Each structure stands twice: as structure tokens, then as C-alpha cells.
Amino acid sequence: MRFNSYEFMIAGRFLVNGRSQTVLIILGIAIGVAVQVFLISLMDGLQRNLIQRTIGSSPHITIAPPLSSPLPLGIGGNAIDDYQRPLKTEENEILSWQRYGDYLGSIEEITVAAPMINGNGYIEKGRSSFPVLIKGITLPEADMIYKFNKNIISGDPRPGANNVLVGAASSEKSGLKVGDTFYLRNQKGAGDYFSIKGIFDLGSSAANNMVVMSLDRARNFLDITGISSIDIQVHDVFAADVLAENLRRSLSQVKVESWQERNEELLSGLKAQDTSSAMIQFFVLLSITLGIASVLAIIAIQKSRQLGILKAMGTNDKSAARIFIIQGFSMGFVGALIGILLGLGMAGLFMFGTETSGGPAYELKITLTNILLPAVLAVLSASVAALVPARRAAGLNPMEVIRNG
Amino acid sequence: MDDIIIVDKINKFYGNELVFQVLFDINLSIKRGQFTAFIGPSGSGKSTLLNIIGLLESPASGNIFLDGQDVSRLNKDEQASYRNEKIGFIFQFHYLLPEFTALENILMPYWIGKGRPPGKVVDRALHLMKRIGIKQFGGKYPNQLSGGQQQRVAIARSLVNMPKIILADEPTGNLDSKTSNTVMELLKEIIGENKTNLVMVTHDRDIAAGADRVIEIVDGRIKSSTT
User: What range does the domain containing B218 cover?
Assistant: First the structure.
């Protein structure tokens, strides 16, 4: 398709001449693009925010032995004889965890790999008991994942010996406070006294039911030789599943699980949100397209006299069609530009309006893709919409105009 | 090859269900350098013949030769560019583009065919405007001009590409008699100066009297022709 300079001139004059129509349709495109830029940025920001909250203080990838489930509660004490006791093998504990640690430490994408001991137990207080998860950690590795330092609500974030950290939920249920001493029983019935050094709030009820102690103390308390799992955080959380897949291939003896696999419901919820925002986008585009098509169709009818004259003077059908394609494209282009500015303005206003003392409540994710995608789509649909009047212009017979005056 | 226009057995019909024949086996040749007038009552088919010669309508049968070339064999796009380069049109209603100034209207045929007009072409347009007395209206839009002024702009426009043939359909039909005479005089002069061939449709015998050759068309047939 070769454009001739007079086509641009005529398209331009037609647009300037039908000023109010042109302004209206450009405004329509601009609002459509602005809404999309804003909506996409908001959705994107909210999703990232949600994911950050969900997995920010939890492992992105967990490496566990194949039979990692802790012994069921209730089977315990002296009722279990030695021969019934599971053997300590690589099947239910990671015995050679130092080796794994070295290997994982050498992988670029991994920010931290922390050895963990997990088990079940009860806090006993008077005649009542409260089930808890017992977690043995090493510092500073575990702190990089669970951020006890940041999430401590009272006391000191560093456990040691029989000084432990207790989750906010457990503390609330049992009425224990910093400095209190309590009796903790493991799943086999054995127990010991511990005192509370700090209370933390990690934001989820499961995590807030934990009793956190040092790795060595937990190993000793739960009678574990190796470790229960290795918790990993990575640089790019959205690439965690890919890395997990690679680890799975190279570490055949253990179970590797990414946060995406653990949070399938969250992710399918986010997918549904994506679908609905794609639908909103589609319908906004559709209405832009229909609007432009109808306005240009009117312009084509209004200008049929001029088109007839131009054709008599030698404008061919393709050229007449291009005059309208140019009009559609330019309205789309100008509308998209204004729309981007408007959208960014809306985003700025939104962040300013929802700002709390600690900065904006929601972080809008304004990326080049989030801006350019709706703009490019709007320009494309404006050009496609122009095909309708372009066909009409191409098919116009100059004699219709000349014969009828 | 002395003939600028040869019309060879042209037939033309209008209508789909009620078919009506407008032109019957028209044969005609027009010599180079002549001012030819088609006269006849309205509905006689004289305008249709002019439009067929101007490649605006296609005949049902027959051929048209312009300047020695069989133009009836050209496709739609080729006909469009032929119209642009070789034929100038002047219609009864002035048919200027209201979005463009008088000068821009005059330059439009050049712009359509060859792109932005160079200074040489603009000079030619300005010269034509000066010659026909509308030099001062170059920057005005058609709705700011009188009927006579608009028709002069249309005459200048028809000449800007220096076409071989000018086809005019009742160019003065919409003007009062005084303006009409002035425009006709001007048209004849400028045709002579530019060495182009004028074919004009009119129902006004006074105007036709000024032509080199008058061809009378009645009911789709040539009734009489002077030489």
C-alpha cells in the first residue's frame, strides 16, 4: 500500500472540518485507553501485592524428603516400641543436608536456602493443651524467609536453647506472654519446659501457630537426626516453578515443591481475574471500534460529494479508501496518546488518594507493556473500524454525485 | 492522426428492470484544435456521451479513442489516472472542495496525480488565476466566492495539468447571462492559449453559436452536425 501525500492532506482537512465529531471520537478513544491503562496497572499491582503478601514471608520452594509428613498426632509415648519406630533414612529425613546446602548455595537464582526442622506438639497449660507446629531454625537464614526480626510484636526475635518464639495465635489461645514458662510436649509424649523470648505475627493462622526454636534444640526435642526440609527463597518469585522443575531433575531423592504448586487456588483466582480484565478490555475496544466505525461512516456519507469530485479528477478507489484509513489511524493515534496521559494521571491520582502515612496503600504496576498494549490495540481497532467507510468510499461511483448535482 | 476524439458505435442503456436506451450507435470524430458543442434538449443523451468520452461512464458497447489510444480497454485505475493526466472537467455545479482554498482546489488535480506541487506548478496555477481574474481569491474558501468566481476557479483547475481535452457540461448553466458571457469568452480565450481541445455540452444555442462545430443530439442519436 503506497500512500500519496494528498491523501493525508484530504484526511486532515476532513477531520479538521468535522471538528466536533473528531474531538468526540478522539475523546472516546482517549477515555477507553485511559481506563485500560489504569485498570491493567491496578490489577497488575494488586496481584503482585497479593502474591507478595502471600509468599513474601514464606518459602518460594520447599525441598523435603519423600515421606516428609510428621508422625500423626496421638500415636506417641511409650505405646510405640522401638521396632515400630520408623527408621531414620533419607526417606523421611534429609540426612545429608549439608551436601544439599552446598549445592543450593551455588545456584545464582537462590537468595537463601534455610534448613528447617518441622514437627507437631502441644503447649500444655493446666489441664488444657493447644496443638502447635514446632519449627527448628538457623539464623540468619530463617530470618531472611520468615522475617522474625520485622514481624516480632513483643520480646526478642532470636531463639536460643530453651528460649523460644511463639506465634501470635498460640500466644493468644494459651494466654502466654513474653517471659512466661510453659510445658511443651512432642508427638511422642516426651516434653520439656520452655520460656517465651518473643511473640511474632507472620500474617497467616498456620504460621502464627508455630513454636520456633533453634535447629539443634528442635532436632534434639523431636528426636530427628537430619533435617525435615530446606526452605528456599529466590530472586524472581514468578520463575520459582521453573527453578523447582530444574531442581526436581537434579535432586531425584527429594520432593521439590514451588509456591505456585502449593497455592494453586490463589493462582487460579488470579487467572480468573486476568480473564475478567481481558474481557473488560475486549468490550472497551469493541465499543471504541464501533464508535469510530459509525462516526467515519457518517463522515463518508457527508463527504460523498467531495469523494465524487476527487474521483472525477483521478483519485482511484484504493486511494479514496486510504483517505479514511488515515483518518481512523490518526484519530486512534491521537486518542491513544491522550489516553495514556489520562491513564497515568488517573493512576497518579489514585495512588495519591489512597495514600496512607506509610506511602501508597496499593502499588500500581505501571510498565511499558501495561501502557503500550492498550494504546496499540486502540490504534489498530481504529484503523480496522475505518475499513467500513473506506469500502464505501472505494465503491462510490463519481457519476452518482455528478448526475445528481 | 488528425482526430483527438473518435467515438465508435457507442450504445448506452440505463435501468435494470425497465431498460432504457440512451445512446444508439453513436459514431463521431472530433478534429484536433476544435471547440465542439453538443446541443440538444435535456434527456437527449448529450451529457451521457460527454461522460463516456470522459471515462466517467462506460458504454454498453463500442470504443472510445482519445488522442489515438483506445481508452475503453483501460481498467478502472488506469482510467482514473488517464482522467487525471489527460482530461480536465468543468461541471455545471462548480464542484469545488469546500474544505480547501481556491488555490488548493486548482492544484488538487496535480497533487492527486504527482504529489505535492513544485514551485513551477504553483506558479502556473497563479498565472492561470491572474489570467482569468481571480488572483486575489487564492486564499479564499469556495463558500466565500460568488458563482462566477467559483466557476473560474473550476476552469483554472481543469487546466492545471495541461490536459489534451477539456470536457465541460453546461459550465455556465448556473450563472446569470452577463457572468455567463464573461466566463464563456474567458474559456474560449484560455483554451486557445493553452492549445487544448474543448468539448462542451449546452442547451443554449447562443453559446453553441460560438463553437467551431455544433453537434445536435436528439433522443440518443446525432441529428445534425456542422463541420
Answer: 3-97+163-225
